[in-house]
Amino acid sequence: MTSFAREAANPPYKLPPPIFGARCRACWFTAALLVLVVASFVSLDLDWAAFASVEAARSMGRFVAEFFPPDVSPVFVNKVAWAAWETLAMSALGTAMAALLGLALAVPASRLSTQDPAWLRSPTRWLLNALRAIPELVWAALLLISAGLGPMAGTLALALHTSGVLGRLFAEAMENVPAGPGDALRTQGVGPLRVFAYATLPQVLPQLMSYTLYRWENNIRAAAVLGVVGAGGLGQLLSFHMGLFHMNKTATILAAMLLMVACVDALSFAARRGLTR
Amino acid sequence: MSASVSPKPPARDPAFAARVFWLSLALVIVWPLAVATEFRPWVLWEPDNRKVTADFVRSFWPLVHTTEFLQMVLRETWRTVAMATAGVTLALVLAVPLSLLATRVLSLSALSGRMDRGPAVLRWCVRATLIVLRSIPELIWALVFVRVVGLGPTAGVLAIALTYGGMLGKVYAEILESGEAHATQTLMRNGSGRLQAFVYALLPSHAAELASYTVYRWECAIRSSVVLGFVGAGGLGQQLDNSMKMFNGGEVATLLLVFIALVALADRMSAWLRKVLA
User: Fold this and answer.
1) What's the whole-model pTM score?
2) Are B209 and B163 in contact (CB under 8 A)?
3) Which class does domain B67-277 fall in?
4) Which of A26, B88, B127, B240 is the most exposed place for a label (fewest CB within 10 A)?
5) Is B276 helix (H, G, I), strand (E, B) or coil?
6) Which numeric CATH code is attached to A74-276?
7) Percent of chain B with pLDDT over 70
8) Is ipTM beyond 0.90?
9) What letter would DSSP give residue B109?
């Protein structure tokens, strides 16, 4: 049965909606955004005059011209290559330690079964958040006090920050694992440690590996600049020679850094493409 | 149970040999890494170092909370947020036109098969520029700009603008190319301009994704503007660096707590905004 509701032959004439209405959320949002942007530009004493002037352009030109020619003497290139290896080693060791520490923290931070009381879940998550919130560079600056100048401070800094990141990702992966295998073992009276080792861990291991590799890629990039505060690798060489105005050497180091980042990007792109195909 | 399974479980771990092999391989790989990074953790336990560390950590408490210091912290926190916001705004000015140039969907000549030689070369150059801008870390840009424009937030804002301009531009172009291009191409085939096709077809279907990525990058910019302070670009990072150099543990602890709170707040806000925008 059709209802015989009357419909107008033509839809009633409507005015276009007003541009600003008190109930329009998007308008308020846009206004707030504009206020934030304008306030930012006004409150920062940005020195555009010094930057846009002819004088600044000239000094920028001089600065860039000093880079050429880059120092490619074998002695110095060897030094840069060693620093690049140091950077790579820092990132690899830091990530490996972070994976172990992250796994150790992820276990108390996750509720592995419905019976698990997980008392430590929120305190451990707070710890992970704190580790993650402080950037590598700040950790490195803090650790310089106890570990001294050099790559060890950088390695530990990478390990601490990354363990916060990985711990959280690992915990989420473990909580989302299918419960079947674990429950099967548990009903047979197997203890929690062996349930973890033979049911939970094997299921999440591929995911854990892929997270770790992804963070390693990030950490290579981070390790290259960590040295700016004195924590080893290419960055330390860079800030040393830049501080002494050795611009030719600085150019070589910058080129090495770019090359390294480009190689990592290309490799990870190729690996991703190879894996998803 | 199939017959092949023995009724008695094996007495020892069947994968024992494999485990020993992988463990020793890992140790063999880790050894040169540890040598290269001068990794000697026992240095941390040497009496001198232990004393310095303990003194520094002990000086964290009490937190410094004089009115003067807190006012300074508040001011620097705002500067950090402002640097990130101004940087991302300038990055947008850079990224939007470049991503429009780099988007294949908006090419008129690509409607009929291959793109013309000229536009293809232009598009490739724009992509390369974006990738180069993105792959230089903002800290390096900041080090360079501190030399040119001197200490202060200008160097930080410019560094964020260039690196994030590259990141945003590249990702915008990828997002714009990812979706269904049908509506855009129909408009262009019927004679609308490329900008019209963008505004009426391409933008509406990708607006939520573009906006949420921008908000996420803004959150990242807040984190990195703190780091930029360490090379002299102002904000919380510079104060943290100063306090650390003076071994003033109380100030360091206060600044770290404020920083963690700021990051958590930005995190919450960006999560909320992304939920609203989606």
Assistant:
1) 0.83
2) no
3) mainly alpha
4) A26
5) helix
6) 1.10.3720.10
7) 96
8) no
9) G
